[in-house]
């Protein structure tokens, strides 16, 4: 009986850790302006205030300008990545309107685990 209980607990722990792991990576693919995702893709303007759920997200107020560097694709196409001043993060594409497109063609590349890290006081953490 004890062995069966131990196995069930182990399965529960494995299941729980797998669900946590899947929340770290928002998508396996993203679209960029170049293979290194260094070129700005577009300039957008916020049409609504946005406060993200954690430190991976970019917070902004309506009217602010954001430079877009990548767009998540396939699993989570609603999230774009961009910067506003020194702040950088994810935001919903429906919270902005495109003001200017800066690239001719998008390139789809695999995301990296580092795409989904938060930087706090010189330490990277997953939320």
TrEMBL record:
Domain SH3: 39-101
Pfam families: SH3_2 (PF07653)
Keyword Coiled coil: yes
Signal sequence range: 1-22
Main localization category: endoplasmic reticulum
One BP annotation, GO: protein secretion
Keyword Protein biosynthesis: no
Name of the molecule in the record: MIA2 protein
Top-level taxonomy: Eukaryota, Metazoa, Chordata, Craniata, Vertebrata
Gene expressing this chain: Mia2
């Amino acid at each position: 009986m004890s062995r069966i209980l131990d196995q069930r607990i182990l399965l529960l722990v494995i299941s729980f850790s797998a669900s946590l792991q899947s929340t770290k990576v928002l998508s396996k693919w993203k679209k960029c302006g170049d293979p290194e995702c260094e070129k700005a893709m577009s300039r957008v303007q916020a049409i609504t205030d946005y406060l993200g759920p954690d430190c991976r997200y970019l917070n902004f107020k309506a009217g602010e300008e954001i430079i877009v560097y990548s767009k998540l694709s396939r699993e989570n196409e609603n999230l774009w990545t961009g910067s506003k001043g020194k702040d950088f993060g994810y935001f919903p594409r429906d919270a902005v309107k495109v003001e200017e497109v800066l690239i001719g063609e998008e390139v789809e590349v695999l995301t990296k685990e580092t795409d989904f890290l938060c930087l706090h006081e010189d330490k990277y953490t997953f939320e």
